[in-house]
Amino acid sequence: MYDRKLFCLTFSMVCIHLLQAEVEETLKRIQNHKGVIGTMVVNAEGIPIRTTLDNSTTVQYAGLLHQLTMKAKSTVRDIDPQNDLTFLRIRSKKHEVMVAPDKEYLLIVIQNPTE
Amino acid sequence: MEIVYVYLKKRSEFGKQCNFSDRQAELSIDIPPNPELMEHFVVRDPVDRGIQCSYEMSEHEVNTERFEMETRGINHLEGGWPKDVNPLELEQTIRFRKKVEKDENYINAIMQLGYVMEHCIKQNNAINIYGEYFDEGDEYEVSDEPLSAKTINVFRDPNEIKRTATHLSWHPDANRKLAVAYSCLDFQRADVNMSFESYIWDLENPNKPELTLKPSSPLVTLEYNPKDSHILIGGCYNGQIACWDTRKSSLVADLSTIEFSHRDPVFGALWLQSKTGTECFSASTDGQVMWWDIRKINEPTEVLVMDISRKGILENALGAIALEFEPTMPTKFMVGTEQGIVISCNRKAKTAAEKIVCTFSGHHGPIYALQRNPFYPKNFLTVGDWTARIWSDDSRESCIMWTKYHMAYITDGAWSPQRPAVFFTTKMDGTVDIWDFSFKQCDPALSLKVCDEALFSLKVQDNGCFLACGSQLGTVTLLEVSSGLSTLQRNEKNIASSFFERETHREKILEAKHREMRLKEKAKLEGKEEDEEVKLNQEELLALAEEEFFDIINQEIRRKQAPLEKKKKQSYEEEELEEFIYKGDEDDEDEEEEEEEEKEEKEEKEEKEEKPKE
């Protein structure tokens, strides 16, 4: 029985490692797309988990976009309570900021659109 | 819910209980109308009463005191980290991050979000959703709103002793900066403690200049290099030329040697178009125009004396105040002088005498501004004494259009870079006039009082929307002009060009007539022999006139007779024929008189034909 537990534990750990590798791959793939300047993952408290940009920029984006996403989400839900925010795109003169919100995390990508 | 206060009253203190019951209606009092009372009143017809049901409101204006602002940065530390993690310690943060990455939620979330995100990224790369697919072309705005302009910002001279803002120059790229040259142009009345500094202002910050330029003598004029926005050239009050590089310090980068510089304040300095982008030229009231290369600024490369007798004598030279150079005509340039004459010069001519091509005179006082129309470079605007005048290269004797004489001296003027028919002028009573001759020719389209003191300089930004004007106390005001005056109107180019052509044509006709009159007078003075010859000519003309006259009459008769033969029955036409023939008899009698008239006309015509041929 002890062996089975150990087996299950190692199996789950391997699975997690594999999945983690997939996550890494996904993030790398996103970063390598044409025009992408930076990618970052931020948790619900605004702490950057993964980022390809420098710390100060990351912190700035994390804090500001978190608030904006919350606002956007509440706006959508106020208008129609059965609706929910799926994606947020901010197009500026220089580039486009895309935010994919989740219950706990935010995936933020800054891209230079082709023009 | 908390009970905050308890109100107590004894039941016995309530009093008797109210018992309500229904009852029939009872008549309490009945007052019948009394017609006798009507005799105290008079019927009023009509009754005029105003009725208004609204709030009473009043309007007040308040002008607050000037507020000094300063921009400062704030440093704040990262927050949001859980209490056990110190954000500054790298190890702890890394550990925290690793922990989160192992979380199953995290993994699922990222997979989901990654999928969505990739879709959008690919979308972006595939197509530009904001692309302009239907190009409308130039849209002409037909704005019915009244023309207006408003002050956006005011930049004051930070020094205590105020100096005049004598020249303004916009930054060539972003147009977010303005270089202002300050000096005191009153002869020998400059204060001893007056500062020599000139400033470069950032439009966003009117409290403090962005950069200070410290020359050895106050700057009268200052220009950005249109090719390299870091380089500026300034003309000093003592005649030297100074060159700055804003990337270096604010002390002078290069200064010309005083022996080879001008002897009077440098009033105009402009950059030339050259491959190296380092050539410029300057003009001063000492009568010289000098060309410089800023790489070797201690000596001018060329000097030209503004002597209109073309002998190069400095004593006869006219002092130059305004300088004009249009990059589309790189070999020509124009100089506006103190004596009110505009001299057009050609740089490429071989000898100094040939360099001065022609002169235009017409102003009574110094010409403070000179600029070619950016759309029709053959026409240029000059501003001086109490008028602004528009000239054409072709008509050398006089200007083609001019404003009326104003009450105040006009100090500076400029064309609008977006509209060919609009130009701006500033006056000594502190007003800015915006003229639009496609709209109104007698008066400015818009006249604004900017400040109480005199305005000395004016510069329009390239988009035609903003203009900066500098005053005698060093206050530079930034104005925004309404879109009606800065966007190209429908057909405006055609209207403006037809205006110019028509006026030029008119001037040419007047010139021709003047010339003719002068020649006639010469002819009269030259003696009798010429008179006799003229008489002989008259006899010939008489014969010619007779012949032609009869020819015309015969032709007319033939023309009238042809349809008449077809319609013989109509008596009206027969009468006409009789009348005509009858008239013909009369005409024979009046022949001589008519011949004389015709003879004179013929004379004039022939003379006119002869003269232009000459």
UniProtKB/TrEMBL annotation, chain A:
This is Dynein light chain roadblock. Belongs to the GAMAD family. It comes from the Eukaryota. The keyword Signal applies. Its main location: cytoplasm. The keyword Cell division does not apply. GO terms for molecular function: dynein intermediate chain binding. SMART domains: Robl_LC7. Residues 1-21 form the signal peptide. Acts as one of several non-catalytic accessory components of the cytoplasmic dynein 1 complex that are thought to be involved in linking dynein to cargos and to adapter proteins that regulate dynein function. Cytoplasmic dynein 1 acts as a motor for the intracellular retrograde motility of vesicles and organelles along microtubules. Pfam families: Robl_LC7 (PF03259). Keywords: Cytoplasm, Cytoskeleton, Dynein, Microtubule, Motor protein, Signal, Transport. GO terms for cellular component: cytoplasm; cytoplasmic dynein complex; microtubule.
Automatic annotation (TrEMBL), chain B:
It holds the Pfam family WD40. Keywords: Cell projection, Cilium, Cilium biogenesis/degradation, Cytoplasm, Cytoskeleton, Dynein, Microtubule, Motor protein, Repeat, WD repeat. One of its GO terms (biological process) is cell projection organization. Gene3D superfamilies: YVTN repeat-like/Quinoprotein amine dehydrogenase. Residues 561-614 are annotated as: Disordered. Residues 573-607 have a biased composition (Acidic residues). GO terms for cellular component: axoneme; dynein complex; microtubule; motile cilium. It comes from the Eukaryota. It is found in: Cytoplasm, Cytoskeleton, Cilium axoneme. InterPro entries: Dynein_IC, WD40/YVTN_repeat-like_dom_sf, WD40_repeat_dom_sf, WD40_rpt. SUPFAM superfamilies: WD40 repeat-like. The keyword Protease does not apply. Its main location: cytoplasm. Part of the dynein complex of respiratory cilia. Consists of at least two heavy chains and a number of intermediate and light chains. Interacts with DNAAF2. Interacts with DNAAF6/PIH1D3. Interacts with HEATR2; probably involved in outer arm dynein assembly. Interacts with CFAP53. Belongs to the dynein intermediate chain family. This is Dynein axonemal intermediate chain 2. It comes from Monodelphis domestica.
